[in-house]
Amino acid sequence: MKPAPFDYVRPNSIAEAAETLASCGGDGKIIAGGQSLMPMINFRLVKPSVLVDINGLPDLSRIELNGNRLRIGATVRHYMTATDPVIMERIPILHEAMRHVAHLTVRNRGTFCGSVCHADPAAEMPLMTLLLDAEIVAKSSRGERRIAAPDFFLGSLVNSLEPDECVTMIEIDTLPADAGWAFEEFARRHGDFALASVGTTLRERDGRATDVRFGMMGVGEIPLRLPAVEALVEGQEVTPRLMDEVAELLGDTLTPNTDLHASADYRRHLAGGLAKRALADAWRRAERGTGEA
Ligand code: FAD
Question: Where would a tag sit more exposed on the chain, N or C end, judged by fewer CB atoms within 10 A?
Answer without folding.
Answer: N
